[in-house]
Amino acid sequence: MPKKNLLPSFLAACALLASVSVMAQTVTDVPLSDVAVKTKPAAQSAVQEAVSEAAKKIPTAEEIAAERARLERMRAALAAERAALEQYKADLVKRQQEADAAAAKAKAEAAAKAKAEAEAKAAGSAASIPPPAQDDPVSAKVLSPEELQRQRQRAIERAKAIEKAVATQRAADAKKKAAAAAQTTSPKDKDVAAMKLRKITQNKVRYVHLRDVAVNYGLTFAYTKNKSNKISGATIYDKTRKVTFSSAYRDGTVNGVQVYFLYPMLLKNNEPYISEVDFLTCLDPLLRYKTPVKLGMKTIMVDAGHGGSDPGAINGSHKEKVYTLQIAKRLQTQLEKLGFRVIMTRTGDTYPTLQERAALCKKYKPDLYISIHCNSAASKTPSGIETYRAVPVGGTETKGSKVKTEKQSANEFDANSSRLAYEVQKGMLAATGGTDRGTRHQAIYVIGNASCPAVLVEVGYLSNEAEVKKIASPEYQNKIVSGILAGLAGYGSFLR
Ligand SMILES: [Zn+2]
User: Fold this and answer.
1) Domain spanning 192-287: which superfamily?
2) At what angle do helices 474-495 and 465-472 cross, to 10 degrees?
3) How far is the CA of 313 from the centre of ligand 1 (A)?
């Protein structure tokens, strides 16, 4: 065919192609039969071409393989996430078991201590932990993202519950520990130098206001009245300590034990005062929980009174020097059993002079000195137990009024001797049930010249017929010894 004749049909074909191309873009919307009907035969190949183009949009085998690989990767990722979740769940179960074990242990301890409240708390904590999530068993099945999210949420909630239970248990444990610590820790003593105490001087004796003393030791102050309803004394006290003072006499009481002060309580303008020397050397050491002076208690010097040429008190065949040595030896035996180092001033019927006994004390430097004696009186009536300590400077003997001005070696230890005397007196009274004649002050050579806290005990009256029989008996002697040991234990707790 000549070229010029082809031009009109070529142009027509171009126009048709253009229209078919538009139709091919929307081929999915137009049924092919319609296209065929509307299309003239000249455009048939163009339509087929357009359909072929549309068919190319169907994924090829390669594309399908690639998509499959992508899905496989996604599946592998999900499987990995599931495995991690399983591990997380396993960890949570382990932690719960540990928490349950801790809770059960605490519960058992609480039950043993009969602390029902703490027990209920521990049980409550354990009960609030939700049971382990009953998830699908591990399988090849891939979990849906929603299921993974649910499991993750349950795991988080469970973890929170376990954390809370563990925290509650720890708090309960800490509380119990603190309570136990509080039971074994004494309240803090206040430093005397830091106390604010009103002071006055009367007849050259300095006094401190008793109300201020009470405040500084956390004690309640109360007046006591006599039968005529007049103020005659005072009491300072709390749950564990109680001290009474008399305005007419030197003797007061400390926790029920008779204690002689150096001066009676002074009432000035109807306000109560006690002497400063009593406050510092007697009252403070009896009120405080721990000694302010660091002293040990390892070596104890035991002094059997009299001996040899000096029989001491005598009642018929009863001689003081015999019983003091018997008691001293019993005390030595018991102290050595307890691990103390004991030094005796005498072990037989000998008479070391008072100076020699004091020299032994200075030589061996014991931690405390105990002298053992028996009492005696012109009358057969008196009976009972006394404990003596050295007279502090500025004070007077219990049976005297002369103020001591010269310091002795034992005066370095006035405060500790006061506590030691009180503890030993209390111990002997408890052990024997004897009459309380109090802790007293007297110018006794061996305790005044001791180089450590020192006391002298009068274990009973040789002049009293009933009491001398007891003093001669091993039973009573053993009671005295156990009373002294109890006193040393009390003094020991004051030292620590
Ligand atoms: Zn004696």
Assistant:
1) Copper amine oxidase-like, N-terminal domain (3.30.457.10)
2) 80
3) 7
